[in-house]
Q: What sequence folds into this?
């Protein structure tokens, strides 16, 4: 059975007390939540429920908003894709952030506020991930120095993203060409081999085995990627439709 939405194993007791009491709506707890976000970025933990609570406080108290904290929340939400956490966070942001001057274009406009531009860029990354365009994700991430600035506070961001991509690939594939997976993980050579063997526990098939077509990464069978046939048996008896058939022959009143 999966964990409940509001559960976070690493959540400190003082944060848990705030979330389960009336203090979660107290503006004075904003600083506590902001420090907790910083802690999550540093120690690679994640607490979606607490992050959403802080964004809700920002809704009620716009003067307390810290743009850097908002971008850190969104970046942390990226590290747990394909969950809907990023979209949940977006829905708690004010309209002028989500629909800036460049709303007619996919690129930020010169008149956009810095936070609007940051949110647009992070939304672009989320869209690429949701489309399983992992190569495009890495290319976009490397295309602008602003992305490096946005993800700088999140410790091990690239490593976390590689792990999430690997998890998603492992749920849908049994084997992948090495060159393709290298582009998805943005790793090559010994670093790539170490990642798939030590982190993922996958195997690597040599080039010669595939007749020179290129090495293949072999992913062990799991409950998500195993193909199983399903036999559907109808258990409805004809007698159960007796009233329907009878009414079909009845004369209208």
A:
């Amino acid at each position: 059975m999966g964990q409940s939405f509001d559960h976070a194993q690493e959540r400190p007791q003082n944060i848990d007390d705030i979330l389960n009491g009336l203090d979660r709506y107290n503006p004075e707890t904003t600083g506590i939540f902001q420090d907790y976000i910083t802690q999550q970025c540093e120690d690679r933990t994640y607490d979606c429920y607490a992050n959403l609570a802080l964004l809700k406080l920002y809704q009620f108290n716009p003067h307390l908003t810290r743009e850097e904290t908002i971008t850190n929340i969104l970046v942390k939400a990226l590290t747990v894709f394909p969950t809907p956490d990023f979209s949940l966070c977006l829905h708690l942001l004010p309209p002028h952030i989500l629909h800036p001057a460049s709303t007619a274009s996919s690129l930020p406009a010169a008149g956009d506020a810095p936070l609007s531009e940051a949110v647009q860029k992070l939304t672009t990354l989320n869209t690429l991930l949701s489309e399983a365009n992992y190569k495009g994700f890495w290319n976009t991430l490397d295309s602008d120095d602003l992305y490096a600035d946005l993800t700088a506070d999140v410790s091990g961001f690239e490593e976390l993203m590689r792990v999430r991509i690997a998890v998603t690939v492992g749920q849908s594939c049994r084997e992948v060409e090495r060159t393709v997976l290298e582009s998805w993980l943005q790793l090559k050579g010994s670093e790539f081999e170490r990642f798939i063997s030590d982190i993922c526990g996958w195997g690597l098939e040599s080039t010669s085995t595939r007749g020179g077509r290129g090495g293949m990464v072999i992913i062990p069978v799991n409950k998500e990627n195993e193909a199983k046939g399903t036999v559907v048996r109808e258990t409805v008896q004809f007698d159960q439709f007796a009233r329907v058939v009878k009414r079909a022959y009845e004369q209208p009143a």
